[in-house]
Write a structure and sequence with these properties.
Layout lengths: L3 H9 L10 E6 L3 H10 L2 E5 L8 H9 L10 H5 L9 H10 L13 E5 L7 E4 L31 H7 L11 H14 L6 E2 L2 E10 H5 L21 E10 L5 E13 L6 E2 L12 E2 L2 H9 L10 E4 L3 H12 L4 E4 L20 H12 L11 E4 L2 E6 L4 E6 L4 E5 L2 E4 L3 E2 L42 E3 L9 H18 L6
Parallel strand pairs: 1-4, 1-8, 4-5, 8-19, 10-17, 11-12, 11-17, 12-13
Antiparallel strand pairs: 2-3, 6-7, 7-8, 9-18, 14-15, 15-16
Helix pairs in contact: 2-12, 5-12, 10-11
Length: 498
């Protein structure tokens, strides 16, 4: 762990190149992934709790083979072999089942892990984030209810439910508000004593690999942008140069430049909304965030007598917009590409009892289509349609799967079809690191290609990716990636016990 003043000095001026000593780890992103990894790198080590029994008999037998060896120091591939669940990542499934042994079957068994603070195993690191610890959770409407159950939002060794009880609050349908989650993550960082590793209001503008020799020799030419992207001479020892700025209390931007042996990408995928790429999408009445609708209602720009609001998309954000508009009696035209029975539609994957409000939206989508009038006023759905254009006169044109077109006059449009990570600080926007190196990085369609048991990028040693960037989209599963990264970094630092 770094003393606060030393960390501030690291960020407030470039490191002295003549006395060059890179930082072991820089984590970019201070959401749940970054927080969990910081906890593990601060010397907190998970062991099997004495006398605990895991309900998975094969895993229990494996755990009994080395009960006094920490999970970080065991063979993660061996332990996770044969586990099944709601994630494609074996290590994510392993860490999740150790913390929530039978949660997917409605059980309430306690974690089989106990945590020890072994300060001699801590690895110095920095966590850089745009917001306060908690990342994008601070940008989400505070009253929004989480998709995941509340206990799945918690981080190691501080159950979310316990924290909520201290606030004398309970969980609604076992779920929590975004404001609760954001506050919990901030509390977690303080409670676990991690705050000296975190630097908020920090924007990273560039990460690139440079040779240690060029830095110590003050050879600036290797620090310039080059077409070689990541690749260096095989004989040279590469380190990462991380450039950016942090915002001062006065609102100024102070530049920084630091060097790191390892960089962990944990920026999530909430950075930029997905655009349709159709004509007129850049017009002022077309928006890509739910907050635009909330602001329009707050300012009385739209209401019951307005032309309909057009909502494009069939995910949970689109559903939240429909629920909000329905609550305000604002008419809605809902356009989406899939048919309502498509198993890939998120609503067909959610238990009705746990998500009654989303089940209601799904019912509206089925029962109130343009072809079939139903019981819901001020709402009409257009399944298997897509947008063709937005006009300056606020007329939009949609088209069905057979090519038939329809035009509607609207008051505003919300295109809510997902979001993309902003990796502009990486060479070539990080595309070279993706599974398909011809396409942009996408958490759902084209994540960064990582080793499943270390989360190190297959295309660049020393660079790691966590959370949605590596295809892990739920808080309960991003923690397994942090376990894999910490295990790998401890091996590199020779901080494994004898």
């Amino acid at each position: 762990m770094l003393p606060d003043r030393k960390m501030y000095a690291l960020l407030s001026r470039p490191q002295n190149k003549s006395g060059f000593k890179p930082l072991p780890v820089v984590i970019i992103g201070n959401g749940p992934s970054g927080i969990c990894l910081s906890y593990l790198l601060s010397g907190y080590v998970p062991y099997l709790k004495r006398d605990s029994i895991h309900p998975h008999p094969i895993l229990q037998r494996k755990l009994e083979e080395a009960p006094d060896v920490s999970i970080l120091d065991q063979d993660l591939e061996y332990l996770s072999e044969g586990l099944e669940g709601r994630s494609h990542s074996p290590v994510a499934l392993l860490f999740d089942t150790l913390q929530h042994p039978d949660t997917d079957f409605g059980g309430t068994a306690e974690s089989v892990l106990t945590w020890w603070h072994e300060t001699n195993r801590a690895i110095p690191h920095l966590v850089l984030g745009r917001n306060a610890p908690g990342g994008a959770w601070h940008s989400i409407e505070g009253s929004m209810i989480t998709l995941s159950r509340g206990e799945w939002m918690g981080l190691p060794d501080l159950p979310f439910k316990d924290w909520l009880k201290q606030k004398r609050r309970g969980l609604r349908n076992n779920r929590a508000t975004a404001e609760d989650i954001a506050q919990y993550y901030q509390h977690y960082v303080m409670k676990k004593g991690l705050q000296n590793n975190f630097r908020s209001d920090t924007v990273v503008t560039s990460v690139r690999k440079v040779s240690a020799e060029s830095i110590s020799n003050h050879a600036q030419k290797d620090l310039q942008n080059s077409d070689s992207l990541w690749n260096l001479n095989e004989k040279s020892i590469g380190v990462f140069q991380v450039d950016g700025f942090f915002k001062t209390l006065k609102g100024d931007k102070e530049p920084f430049s630091i060097y790191a042996e390892n960089v962990v990408l944990a920026t999530g995928t909430y950075d930029g909304p997905t655009w349709l790429g159709v004509k007129g999408e850049n017009l002022s009445y077309v928006h890509h965030q739910l907050s635009a609708l909330e602001e329009a209602v707050r300012n009385n720009n739209i209401g019951i007598m307005s032309d309909p609001v057009l909502i494009v998309g069939a995910g949970l954000t689109a559903a939240d917009a429909i629920l909000f508009a329905h609550h305000c009696n604002i008419p809605v035209i809902h356009v989406f590409r899939r048919c309502v029975s498509d198993p890939g539609l998120i609503f067909n994957q959610l238990p009705k009892m746990m998500y009654p409000e989303y089940h209601k939206v799904h019912q509206m989508m089925k029962e109130q289509s343009a072809a079939c009038a139903g019981p819901y006023e001020c709402y009409v759905s257009f399944p298997e349609h897509h947008m063709l254009s937005f006009g300056k006169d606020k007329k939009c044109i949609i088209q069905d799967k057979n090519g038939y077109q329809k035009a509607y006059k609207i008051s505003m449009a919300l295109v809510l079809t997902g979001s993309n990570p902003n990796l502009s600080f990486l060479p070539n926007n990080g595309i070279d690191l993706a599974m398909d190196s011809d396409q942009p990085v996408s958490s759902k369609r084209n994540p960064i290609d990582v080793d499943p048991f270390t989360y190190e990028c297959t295309q660049e040693k020393g660079l790691y990716a966590l959370g949605p960037l590596a295809g892990d989209n739920f808080v309960r599963f991003v923690q397994g990636g942090a376990l894999a990264v910490a295990s790998s970094l401890l091996k590199k630092a020779n901080k494994n016990p004898p």
